[in-house]
Each structure stands twice: as structure tokens, then as C-alpha cells.
Amino acid sequence: MTKKNFWNTIIVFFVIASLGLSGCKKKKDEVVIYYANWIEGVAMTKITELALEDVGIPVKTMLLSPGPVFTALAKGDGDFFLEAWLPQTHRHYWERFGNKIEKAGMNFDYASTGLVVPSYVEIDSITQLNAHKDKFNGKIIGIGSGSGVYRDTEKAIKDYGLEFDQVTSSGPAMVSSIKNAAAKEEWIVVTGWKPHYKWAKYDLKYLKDPKGIYPSEKSYIVTRKGFTEERPGFKEFLGNFYFTEEQMSDLMLLLEKEDDVDAAAKIWYEENKELIQSWMPEEWLK
């Protein structure tokens, strides 16, 4: 071998090695997943974190309210968010940032929001609330003021002329209010949504909404611009990512029952590992 051929061989070797290391690094680069403090979002994010780390992809999760999530993704920070509810709940964020972020999949299509009461409450429509204001103490138990259902409820109060105030709380506090009221069969109205484990724990119903303020919705996975091009395996994974209503209910109930959310998520993941990995590209599983 001539000296020239020797150095050419060395250069080719290092180019190939560099490409190989680059591909390896690309798979192992950390991904940042944003999530909000909603039980279904927490559940899906925990499962995703376990699944990705199981195939060698490190994950960092960040808990934020929806506004900062959409803002960060539009700026190109972080990587994806598993729960953008459209067309209504996160509509104003989508109108503002939709051209700066991308949809990568739809993880459930049976979402809904509305005003919820226990089934023993003897009304069936939002239009009947004012006639029984005293029984509800003039309050609608809401969640965070940054949520879509909170804003929709402010609109409902105005459009229906409700003589009620919406009380800001949180998802867990809302469920605790249902629990306390149900124990005494007291009347209570809360802002609710599906999927959520409260429907499995308590006998509840939506109040009819003749003005159509609370629509049926779908939950989309949204990413920063260019993420699935940079990490093509995620195009397949997030495109296949889908929970049936039964799967989601089982997962949320398990997380709600266990004191250790991480341990509960791990139990569910191990029992459903084959399902989750069926969403992944084959090269991730080698």
C-alpha cells in the first residue's frame, strides 16, 4: 500500500466512524417532554419516559402550564407535548403558535369537557343551574385559570347568564370536592373532562349544553418545528402513539390509587410493554 492510499484509508475509516458515532449520538440525545398537571397527561408522560429510556433514549420531563408549553415549543425549546386539546380547549394557543409548531400524532379522540354534577343532582342542563343556585352555594368548582375549560366556563357563565362564580382550584382539589360532596349527597357542580379517573370512581353526568360552549375534542401530540425531521424515529413513534379509552382509564386509576406515581406507572408499563414498543421503529428495539 502506498503512503497516499494509506492516508486515504485512514481518512475513510474516520469518516465512517464519525458517521456511526453521530448516528448513535442522535439516538441517545436527550429529549425534553413538556407536560401539564392533568392526570391523563402525567400518566402518558410517565409511560413515554419509561418506554424511551428502556430503549436507550434519555428523557427530561418539565411540568408547565399550557401557555408556557406552547410558547417554549414555538421558540424551539424542548421537544414535544403529548396533550394539545383541539379544536377548542387550546384553540387560542393554536391560533397564536400553530404556524410555529407541528402536529405529530393524535393520542386519543374521545375528549370532552363540560359542567359536571353527581348523578343524584336533580337537574340535567346548564339552563337549570340558576333555579337551584342556593343548593350549589352559587359556586362552580373550577381548576387553573390558564386552562381552556376555565375560559369556556367563564363564557358559559356570561352566555347563560349564570349567577355563579367559578372557584379556581386544581384537578386534585376538584376531585376532592366531589368526594366530600358525594359522601353527604350534597349538590356540587364542577368543571370536568374526559378522560379522567373521576368517572370511574363516582357516578357523574355532564349537564346538557344547548349553546354548544363545550365541544367534543381530540388530543394531539405537538412538537417544536423540525423535531421529527431531526429525529425520524419519533415520526413513527408519535404517529402510532394512541391510548384507547379503556387503556387510559386503567392507567389513570392505577396512578390515582398508588401513593408512588412513578412506581404505578412502571407497573402499567411492564404489563403493557409489548403494546408501547409496537409503536416504535424497529431500529430502536435492536
What are the defining features of this structure?
7-stranded mixed beta sheet, alpha/beta, D-Maltodextrin-Binding Protein, domain 2, two-stranded parallel sheet, 286 residues
SS class: alpha/beta
Average pLDDT level: 89
Count of DSSP-assigned helices: 12
Strand-residue proportion: 15-25%
Number of domains: 2
| Largest sheet descriptor | 7 strands, mixed
What's the architecture of the largest domain in CATH terms? 3-Layer(aba) Sandwich
Low-confidence parts lasting 5 or more residues at pLDDT below 50? 6-25
Q: At the third CATH level, what is the topology name of the largest domain?
A: D-Maltodextrin-Binding Protein, domain 2
Q: Estimate the global geometry from the Cα principal axes.
A: globular
Helicity, in percent? 40-55%
| CATH top level label of the largest domain | Alpha Beta
Question: End-to-end distance, in Å?
Answer: 37 Å
Q: Helices and strands, in N-to-C order? A: HEHEHEHEEHEHEHEEHHHHH
Number of strands: 9
CATH superfamily of the largest domain: Periplasmic binding protein-like II
Roughly how many Å is the radius of gyration? 23 Å
